[in-house]
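Exam revision sheet. Question 4 asks you to relate a sequence to its structure. Input first:
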Amino acid sequence: MTVAIVLSAALAALVLAIALVLPAINSPTVPFGVRVPAQRADDPTVVRQTRVYRWRVLLSGIVAIGVCLAIYGMTGETLLLPLSVLVLVGFWYGCFFLANHEIRAAKAAGGWYEGVRQGIAVDTELRTDPPRFPWLWLAPALIITIATVVIGVISYPSMPDVLAVHYGAKGIPNRSAAKSIGTAFSLVFVQIGVTALLVGIAAAILFRSRPDIDPAHPAGSAHWHRRYMLLGAKALLGLLAMIDLAMLGSSLLMWTGTVTPWAPLVVALPILAAVAVAVVVFARNNRARDEGEEDTGLTHREDDKYWRSGLFYVNREDHALMVPRRFGLGWTLNFGNPKAAMLLAGVVALIGLVITLRFAG
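Answer key, structure tokens:
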């Protein structure tokens, strides 16, 4: 029970911290997903909405966590602890949409783009000389997966006839299944599926994403974007290694029949730690640094029509599979690209695999 409280509190704190700092680390020319000229980045409306957004997020976060803890205290249902995180995310995006709406309305009413020289900058070398895939960063995940397979094969004859395939919040098995290849190696299949998915996403970031290069400082922006793409791919592969490590730990619990109140930590701790590290690394590198490049006098073209509510990018004329997020860290799919549906289908298939293998017993 204590473990569930600690994990839920840590996750809620991480989500709340991300929500509060995002306005400061995102590009100042896309406040809350609205494209604005650089000279309007400090407009009173933007400043006011940033302040109001933070207060709304902080207060709603306190309310969401407090209500869920109160209900948990009355009912004892540990499911309500992670539910508080989902409620917090819902409040977070509600606060974002309110700020997005207000800034978009002020932009339209004030004619912020009238008389502004708009331009587009591209980095043609991304096609002729793309970044190299960081294969060395994939090695830890592959080693952990192979080690899981080897340990599983050696341990299979001595495994219990009934395997615990799921642990509750208190570390007590609450679902079991008869020993079989599918049951014993279910998490190995998950490892393989997650590896294929995240490697595919890392490759898409490097080779199928479109950089959002600043036409005011094209050379420095292009140079930063190359580094950021490589950083993103490495962060994904590092996260992959921690997910595979969590699957190895969970498999060992299942294969040995170990019952411990710390069982949830075996899965949650490596993944949560990797996510926290990735968030910090992305946050520190999420904006291009001023390298003293002369300003061209151009600004980004007004392209809000392709961004639904500032979050979802839909452009059938853009062949890129992924584009940098306007609000948040990393990239988002171009939902106008048919291949985005294939990637989403892969995610759904992986979730279906987990449900089938882990809960069918």
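Marking note for examiners. The longest helix spans residues 218-256.
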